[in-house]
Amino acid sequence: MEGGAVNAIGPVLEVRKVCKRYRQRPVLRGVSLELRPGELVGIVGENGAGKSTLLRILAGDLAADSGMVRRTGRLGCCPQETVLHPAFTVDQHLRFFQAAYGISRLTRACELLEELNFSDYRYERVEALSGGTRQKLNLTLALMHDPQVLLLDEPYQGFDWETYLRFWELAAALRDRGCAVLVVSHLAYDASRLSTLYRLDGGLLHKTEWTTTVGAAS
Ligand SMILES: Nc1ncnc2c1ncn2[C@@H]1O[C@H](COP(=O)(O)OP(=O)(O)OP(=O)(O)O)[C@@H](O)[C@H]1O
Hints:
Layout: H1 2-7, E1 13-22, E2 25-35, E3 40-44, H2 51-59, E4 66-71, E5 75-78, H3 90-101, H4 107-115, H5 131-143, E6 149-153, H6 161-176, E7 180-185, E8 196-201, E9 204-207
Parallel strand pairs: 3-7, 3-8, 5-6, 6-7
Antiparallel strand pairs: 1-2, 1-4, 8-9
Bound molecules: adenosine-5'-triphosphate.
The site of adenosine-5'-triphosphate has 11 residues, from helix 2.
């Protein structure tokens, strides 16, 4: 079984009892999670449940108050707020991130432009792009260096239905080539596409009954 082979490999992301509070308000109360190569895991939760806080801690962008996060491999991160500059073109963003990642070619980035169907906008400035196209660029910037661990915060916001389906095809392809993918969203529409779905509630992760056996621990 695919899941058995996958789970013979150790986790690329290990989270133990992570806690975080803002002033006196606890948001995370002891979150534990493991993510292995070839797993596509979802976390859902209501607005304000702490999903973005958790993702920022996993990405190393925010410090936890206590607990442990251990990550190995190249990280790709697509934050909820786009990281784009309005005056730069799509191509300029690709070249800036190419330098930041230290990669020699834009081959994968060009593939992603094609797969997400926005190659025609390559030389347009971000200020002239629609919200959905900006999000396509945000996602491309997280994926263009072929990450081994991918953290996605509401990655399909603003996508039309066709692009939304393309996103899931892309996520499945990444999973199949061994990437560990974590998708955070306030919607649980996509449960059947996931190895495991957790709900973040009351500052803790709860495994939901929608969990399937595809690539999941057994
Ligand atoms: N920098 C901050 N200072 C104080 N409180 C914060 C800060 N960042 C987030 N919070 C609070 O922490 C809680 C969790 O916020 P977070 O953005 O992690 O939730 P979320 O689940 O991602 O929400 P959404 O689905 O609306 O994006 C919220 O009540 C929010 O107001």
